[in-house]
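#onboarding

Welcome to the new folks! Below is a worked example of what a typical request in this channel looks like: someone posts a single protein sequence, and someone else replies with the predicted structure as tokens. Don't worry about understanding the tokens yet, we'll cover that in week two.

Example request:
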Amino acid sequence: MLYTKIVLLQRVAKLGGIGDVVNVKPGFARNYLLPQKIALRASDENLKYFADKRSQIEAQNAETRSEAMKIAEKMKDLSVVLIRQASEKDHLYGSVTGRDIASALKELGFTVKAGQINLNSPVKLLGTYSISVDLHPEVSAPIKLVVAKSEEEAQQQLPKDSAEPT
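Example response:
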């Protein structure tokens, strides 16, 4: 199988850190890493460019990481409540997606994309869930998700977890 050599401009989970030259599948490089400006092809010209700009790239990464850490601190002990219709056996009519959670976080004043929400499994039942939000490749913030039929049920679930409603 063919691989493409790239140099990473930021840390990528399960791949490498800033400045690492790694081999990835061509589609992953072409469709994700290169368009998102996460990496450059590892040509001699790009390696020289990276060597010249390394300190600037690392400083910019440190700045965005510190901003993400500030946001993560604000998200500490955050509970997101979503009201959904469900059957008598607590099965949701539909499921809760990252987009739903991102929308609820936006209402609370946090700008988060749906792709930054890590759901371990689809949320298809009423209840309380612990999920994480990736704010930066090196920073994630855990939040509680409460899915209930009504506000009253949601408020009943919150004190059990010793979390404050937001």
